[in-house]
Amino acid sequence: MHEYPQQSSGRQPLPGQGRRRYRRARWTGAGVACALLLGGAGCAAPEQERSSGDGAARLGGPGPSAAGTPSPGAKQPQASAPPTPTGDPDVQLPAGPRSDFRQTARLDDGTVIAKTRVAGAKSGFEGDVWVWTPKEYEDPKYAKSAFPVLIALPGGNGYPTNYWADRSLGLQKAVSEGVRAGTSLPFVLVMPVLNPDDKYYYDGADIPGQPKMGTWMAEDVPDFVRANFRTYRSRDGWAFMGSSSGAFVGMKTLLQHPDKFKAVIASGGEITPDSPLWKGHQAEMDANNPEKLAEKLIAGGGPDVYINFQVGTKESGKDRMVKFVQQYGKGPVKTTIRDIQNGEHNGWHYVRGMKEGSLEWISKVLKGPRPEAG
Questions:
Q1: Phi, psi of 289 (to 5 degrees)
Q2: Which SS3 state, helix, strand or coil, does residue 41 take?
Q3: For residue 168, what are the contacts with CB-CB under 8 A and spacing of at least 6?
Q4: What is the pLDDT of residue 372?
Q5: Which of 15, 112, 198, 276 is the most exposed place for a label (fewest CB within 10 A)?
Q6: What distance in Å separates the CA atoms of residue 44 and residue 166, rounded to the nearest whole number?
C-alpha cells in the first residue's frame, strides 16, 4: 500500500499565505479520491457504493424521536420503557431527541455504519456525523450498560466526509476482531466532519470570526452521542483517535478538556496549530496549542490524560513526537510512542498500528461495558 496521492484540494490560501504544510496537503478522504493499493489494483470505493441496503437505520437506544410530530390520526406504537441501569451510577441512558440515521455501509458481521445530520446547539454549526455500534451494543446482557465512545477524526479537509466511515480502511473490523481476541473494548465509533468546508482548516478550534469547530467537537458531538446512545457520565468512557490533522484535533481537545475526555491515539506527528486563519489571533492560538495546554495541565497537577502516538517508520514526524514526550510527557501527561514498521502516512497503516497494540493500550485506559449479572 502507498500513501494517498498528492492532489490539489482546490483550496485557496489566504492572502500572504504560501503552500500549506504537509499534513494538510497529503490527506484526502477515502471515497473522495482513490487511494493507491498494491500494484495499483484499485481504490477505496465511494461511500454510496459501499452501502448495502441504503436507507433508514436503527442505531442507539430508546429515546424521543427527532423526526417530528406524527400525522394526526396515525397509529402510535407503544413506547417501551428504557432499561434502568443498576449498580453503576456512571451509566447514562440516551436522553433524546433521537436522531434519524441512514445506513451508508454494512459490515460482514451484520453491523452497519450510519449517518445523520447534527445541528450543534452550542456551536451553531451543522454537519454530518457517522456512527458504528458493535454487535455487543445490541446484546441483551449489555442492555443496562454504557459503552465507551471513540471519536475518530480524519486528516486533511475532513469535509464533507469522514474517511473512517469507509469500511475499506478497516477501523470497525479492527475493533470487532479485537473484541473477539480480548484485546479491545467494544467501542462505539463516532465519526464527525472535521471542518466546516474544504477551503480552509480550522484546527478543531473556535477561531475568532470563524465557525466554532472547537465547541462542535468538544460539546455538540458528545451531546449528540449522549442523546442517542448509552454512555458513561465520566470521562472514563470518552476518547479520541485521529490521523494527521485529526490527530492534532483529538490531542488538543483532550488537553483542553481533561475533565471530559481521557485518552487519544494520535497518528502522524502533528503537534502544534498552524491554520492560516489564526493570523492576528496569537493569544487564541496559544490557547489551542497542545504544548502550552500540556504545560498548564502539568502545573495544575492533572487530571491524568493518556496520549498514544503512532508513527510509521517510512514517514516523517517522529522527531516532533519525541520532543513533545521529552518536554511534556511527565506528571499527569502520560505518553507513549508506537512505531509502525514499514508504515506510511495513511489510514490503513494506522489501523494496523491499532491492531498491533494501540487498541489494547486504550482499552486498558478506558472503562468497558459490564454485562448484567446472571
A1: -95, 115
A2: coil
A3: 30, 44, 45, 50
A4: 84
A5: 15
A6: 8
